[in-house]
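Inputs:
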Amino acid sequence: MTGFRLSSGGLIDRSTTLNFKFDGKSFNGHQGDNLASALIANGVNLMGRSFKYHRPRGVISAGASEPNALVELREGGRKEANTRATMVELYEGLVAKSQNRWPSLNFDIGAVNSLASSIFVAGFYYKTFMWPKSFWEKIYEPLIRKAAGLGTASREADPDLYEKSYAHCDLLVVGSGPAGLMAALTAARSGARVILADEGSRLGGSLLFENEEIAGQSGFEWSQAVIAELASMPNVTLMPRTTIFGWFDGNIFGALERVNDHVAVPAPFEPRQRYWRIQAKRAVLAAGAEERPLVFGGNDVPGVMVASAMRHYANRYAAAAGKSVTIFTNNDSALRTAADLKAHGVHVEAIIDTRKGRKICNVIGKRGVKFVDLENGDIIPCEAVAMSGGWSPIVNLMCQRGAKPIWNESIAAFTPPDVGAEFKAIGSAAGHMLLSECLADGARAGTVKGKTPATPKCRDEAFAITPFWWVKESTGKAFIDYQNDATAKDLPLAAREGYGHVELAKRYTTTGMATDQGKLGNVNAIAILAEASGKTIAEMGTTTFRPFYTPVSFGAFAGPFTGHHFQPVRKTPLHDWATEQGAVFVETGLWMRSSWFPREGEDWLASASREVKATREGVGLCDVSTLGKIDIQGKDAGAFLDRLYCNTFSTLSIGKARYGLMLREDGIVFDDGTTSRLAEDHYLMTTTTANAARVMSHIEFCHQALWPELDVQYVSVTEQWAQMAIAGPKSRATLQKIVDGLTLNDETAPYLAAKDITVLGGITARLFRISFSGEHAYELAVPADYGNAVARAIMQAGHEFGIVPYGVEALSIMRIEKGHVAGGELNGTTTAADLGLGKMMSSKKDYIGRMMATREGLIDPQRQCVVGIKPVDRAMKIRSGGHLLKQGDAPSMAADQGYICSVAFSPMLNMWLGLALLSNGRARHGEIVKVFDGLRGHHYLAEICDPVHFDPENRRLHV
Amino acid sequence: MLIPCPHCGNRPVEEFTFLGDASVERPQSNDPASMPQWQAYVYERENPRGNFAEYAQHSGGCRAWLVVNRNTDTHQVTGAVLASAFKRKAKS
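Outputs:
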């Protein structure tokens, strides 16, 4: 219990009291606090345990880089694991739990790992858990995960809403410190559309906690005046609580706005978080710089912080880390901490400056700092240690697209690369360490046109650094990556063992692989690795920067597209009718298709079998609205179709339909369907349900990219028409009752007729005499809005003939009985000849796929082609997927003769039958083959036959 | 990434469907001797580093097929024309 609340100062509202719980204990803080500052003010040092050694840890930073103070925030479905306490605004009722400890944070059994630390060196997991290999998945990995777990995810659904949004601007300013504010102000005053985003809860960046002087006022006052002016301008969007997490092609930035993370429960209809995509003409990186820890023994003891974090907590939150502080630095900036702490009445015991040959060798203390011992044997008792190893510009965003940062010896830091005029780094993010440089950078970057305005006068604090990385005299553990417990000694070890490349060392030592992605530790690691490898830091270089700058929740990525809203649902125009008829629907793509129409006590097979029988014996009605329908018009429509289909359509008579087969350019079958000629220059194409969108796109490509000279237009009319199949020997009698003024017979509506008619007293309709079921059948299309009414009328008209609705299951049974090919056979590997449709391929014209279909491999007689198949034991059920073998052959790839594509129980033939692809199959009708179904362990004999199992003479078409 | 659709203006890349190299030209002949050209047309593609003209359809917009010029190295998009105009220009 060393931290405490200072008696005055800070940007907190002391008149408010916010109650919160940490590990079940109640505390309170003030409006303006974050969870870390409130815990410090309450004297809570210990906020987490480290990953490997389970060492007690406190907060070390004051921002997004925090590796130690990770908590499980909130409870139930709202729980968020691995949340940085430094980024959580305090609110009434906040509940947080520490992580990676058992049974409690204070007493953690895992800490015995620390005693065995000599074996937990870099590469430990790789070296130890190598064998036996079979142990890895079942024993080692689960154990390691349990022991070294971070927070746990909730298993409940997240009840909150997430949104996605888009924004556009002339200038995006990332960061709202002095440079960012100056850039935003300059650009905004000249009329540019400006977005100013900052990950902090409040705009102002470093001016919220640094003692600066700008234009005769405090830096804080100046910032608030600038923010007020920006807020008043209509061309400016201020986005606090917004992390720009990624920079993408075309100067697009990804951002996460924490809209309601600062309250327990978002207001109704408000999102918790909003995922932004920001398109910026220009952007500036004013993200500032990250202060580095120094590497010395016990640099992870709770109470050791980076120096800027310590003054951040004191100045902004009035939270002191301890009553007495020792400062350890290699540069000037830590002197600010000394001055600020003194001003708050905190005793500064000593300033240990490596530039004067002084070093802290070890921090002594377990759950808090007791004293430090120095290189000369001196001991200084104190409650906290502030350390500064220098400053690293936050270059991450700028390096996410492949550019590498550049080592700058004079400030001992990697600075951003030049990535072009669209994205410029300014201020300390560019390595400019003086306030006057930051303001000047901002003014320059914000100048849209004309002269750069003068910047306000300010006080500069001198900055100088002499690099110093690692106190080698330390006897205690000196940490580089706090979260993953990588120590300074791990890096030379990695180099010695041949993993000296920066990317290899990262993976070998796990440095930089934790949730903080090495924000604090990576430069220290690179410097120590460089020294161990005899290279310069510039030669060693950095690991690869990738999005995301900080973790983004899955909820934000998913946005509103979850559950029922994951994808749209397409309902056919006959959906209501099908529902009335008791349809069971099946999802096919986005469509809901009526699958079967069960009656009391029927399962799907009983229902589908009854539907088939009733249709074949009387009449049935099936919704076929999902088939793609494409209206094609123009002088060259016929010529165009001739090039799309392998058969000819320009010769089709007006008022007739024809089955068409489309190939891909490589000669494989693409799609099929009937296409009708409604007028000289007007065709209506139908496609399969699955390929409707693909065929549409293909048509558009063929016309626009291949043959733009053709005079043709096309549009999808799938959703404009309700289409139903009326099939069965009583189909004509049924339809006759609803058509207007037309006697249906083989003269007025012969087989393959396609004609415009009206039904039910004037409803526009198209009648096609086509059949997929093999029955005397029609398809009737009416404008979508009339679909349900017409279907109901047909049911009424067919009542006397025992009409039934039938679904896609019955449809599929009937097409398999008839040997009509569908998706199982048009599977992207079959040619027209494989399907038994080789004769359709015209030799009188060019068409898509013509030439490639003639390749040797595609006309090989040994190719697998469609055959019928039925079990020798007629009572046996067969399943698709089984492979076919010659009777005497053992199963092997070499002996494989083909496979079963589609199966159905035929109620007409009272047995299971199917369609298969079989090598040279047409010559093998009558052969008995062995079916090998290894997946289901099912092997049996089957007979190969003609694919047309039922009514091979097609008599029923013309009944 | 934004694609300047000649019909719709700058639109995000997610609205487009890409098909690949637009420099290939469909052979005219059905003579068996032309098979090598067909083979090349269907299967053979360059994978250049730098400027690249590729087919893209504005499938989430006006549905026009375009030829988009993109630098495969930098992902900079330098222009887009209608595929029909591209084809007519190639012919003339």
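Remarks. The mean pLDDT of chain B is 94. The longest strand of chain B covers residues 51-57.
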